[in-house]
């Protein structure tokens, strides 16, 4: 006799566990299947984000930034602490404790909300059935009224630099380095590469980033990307664009990397090499051919705007479907799907999904870039305000970067906001809320912002859209 649930969710990352909790809150008998096992083969909830992604990387980013500030920036405040030292083992221990606390927190929330957590590898069968294989090989089949696939993603591997988990590592391995490499290579200067490179650069590594693309952060607004590149160069990151890695060989306890650029074949030697060229959906072996589920040409599960697959009552959310691989995007998709299963009219506003690079300063964005709008033939107006003109940023000795606001030239409706600067992730959220309510740049310009705050840079950028900024000289209209 098979077990039956109203909703079965595959994966317990941010998309899966949030959906599971919400489904239970809405009165559904809910199960969440997770294959990740931690110490002692204990079920480990939280997926990539909590275990080896968002959370541990931010813990190391914050620790390394505090170290760098102590080493480089306290003297300007009149504080002399001598030469600080970094205890990498203690830093990693703190990271692990945070991960343990949060993953344990999800287990507590599952228990509180009545979600059944099942350890094993899941496969979707025809007729909304799920086959679960545990670590011993035992198989059980459970029936579901609805299935939500939230299986996440895995790091992309490249043939020229095969992972060996000692000298050539992926993003997971980069979170476990037991000592600061003297010379660190990073393949890929995207979000993951920049964050990991920043951690170890702050701690003293000489970091060389090899990016195959000719443009830096091409998904970002060009002006913000250029400004970010200047800041990272000033911090000592050696970012080489148009550098396509052709090989990596470990010899004499070092990684010998060959790459080609406009000058021909080049060689570099590193103590460690991080491969951070992106992530791909974890879609292999997730379903039987007769389940009705289909994949697109890139391995993503095909879904419509409401995250419905082509199989009845089967949904997919998060990294395994189209769109940006962002934890918050996956969580909100999970909420939307569960609400729709419950019969409520929910939808996802993909125009208001913020993205963040957690370097220092942070880079954050929502909406369209200026080049995207121009490419679409949309007439827009732009306001820019530098943090160098912010009293709060100057007082904090953290005045790199700018806020860029973009609005429709005819309607004044905010179409995008792009920020590089201190607390950019939190500042852009103010604009996300404004855009969600269809606000104009004038709406933000007429809003009272506290003084002195970093938020005033958002206010001034909104004012600058129409040439009305107070604390910078406005460009004269032609």
Automatic annotation (TrEMBL):
Domain Pyridine nucleotide-disulphide oxidoreductase dimerisation span(s) in chain numbering: 353-462
Known catalytic reactions: N(6)-[(R)-dihydrolipoyl]-L-lysyl-[protein] + NAD(+) = N(6)-[(R)-lipoyl]-L-lysyl-[protein] + NADH + H(+)
Assigned EC number: 1.8.1.4
Subcellular location: Cytoplasm
Keywords: Cytoplasm, Disulfide bond, FAD, Flavoprotein, NAD, Oxidoreductase, Redox-active center
Main location: cytoplasm
GO terms of molecular function: dihydrolipoyl dehydrogenase (NADH) activity
Entries under Pfam families matching the protein: Pyr_redox_2, Pyr_redox_dim
Any further remark recorded for this protein: The active site is a redox-active disulfide bond.
Family, as annotated: Belongs to the class-I pyridine nucleotide-disulfide oxidoreductase family.
Name of the protein: Dihydrolipoyl dehydrogenase
């Amino acid at each position: 006799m098979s077990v039956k649930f109203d909703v079965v969710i595959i994966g317990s990352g941010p998309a899966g566990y949030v959906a599971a909790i919400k489904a239970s809150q809405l009165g559904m008998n809910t199960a969440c299947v997770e294959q990740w096992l931690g110490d002692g083969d204990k079920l480990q909830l939280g997926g990539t984000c909590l275990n080896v992604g968002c959370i541990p990387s931010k813990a190391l980013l914050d620790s390394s930034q505090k170290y760098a500030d102590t080493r480089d920036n306290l003297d300007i405040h009149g504080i002399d602490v001598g030469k600080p030292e970094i205890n990498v083992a203690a830093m990693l221990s703190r990271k692990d404790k945070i991960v343990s606390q949060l993953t344990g927190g999800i287990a507590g929330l599952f228990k509180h909300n009545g979600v059944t957590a099942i350890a094993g590898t899941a496969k979707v069968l025809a007729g909304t059935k799920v086959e679960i294989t545990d670590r011993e090989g035992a198989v059980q089949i459970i029936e579901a009224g609805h299935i939500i696939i939230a299986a996440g993603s895995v790091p992309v591997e490249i043939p020229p630099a095969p992972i060996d988990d000692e000298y050539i590592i992926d993003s997971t391995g980069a979170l476990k380095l037991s000592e600061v490499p003297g010379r660190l290579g990073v393949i890929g200067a995207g979000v993951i590469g920049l964050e990991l490179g920043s951690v170890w650069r702050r701690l003293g590594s000489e970091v060389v980033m090899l990016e195959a693309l000719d443009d830096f952060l091409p998904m970002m607004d060009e002006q913000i990307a250029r400004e970010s590149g200047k800041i990272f160069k000033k911090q000592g990151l050696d970012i080489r664009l148009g550098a396509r890695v052709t090989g990596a060989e470990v010899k004499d306890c070092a990684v010998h990397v060959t790459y080609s650029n406009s000058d021909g074949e080049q060689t570099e030697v590193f103590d460690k090499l991080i491969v951070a060229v992106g992530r791909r959906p974890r879609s292999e072996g997730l379903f039987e051919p007769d389940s009705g589920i289909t994949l697109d040409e890139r391995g993503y599960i095909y879904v419509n705007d409401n995250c419905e697959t082509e199989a009845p009552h089967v949904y997919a959310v998060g990294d395994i479907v189209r769109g940006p691989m962002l934890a918050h995007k996956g969580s909100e998709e999970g909420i939307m799907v569960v609400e729709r299963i419950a019969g409520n009219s929910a939808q996802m506003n993909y125009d208001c999904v913020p993205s963040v690079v957690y370097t220092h300063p942070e880079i954050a964005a929502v909406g369209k870039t200026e080049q995207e709008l121009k490419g679409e033939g949309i007439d827009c107006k732009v306001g820019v305000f530098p943090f160098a003109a912010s009293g709060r940023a100057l007082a904090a000795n953290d005045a790199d970067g700018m806020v860029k606001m973009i609005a429709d030239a005819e309607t004044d409706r905010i179409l995008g906001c792009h920020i590089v600067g201190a607390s950019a992730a939190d500042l852009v959220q103010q604009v996300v809320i404004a855009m969600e309510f269809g606000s104009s740049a004038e709406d933000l310009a007429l809003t009272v912002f506290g003084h002195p705050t970093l938020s005033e840079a958002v206010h001034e950028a909104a004012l600058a859209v129409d040439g009305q900024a107070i604390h910078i000289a406005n460009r004269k209209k032609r």
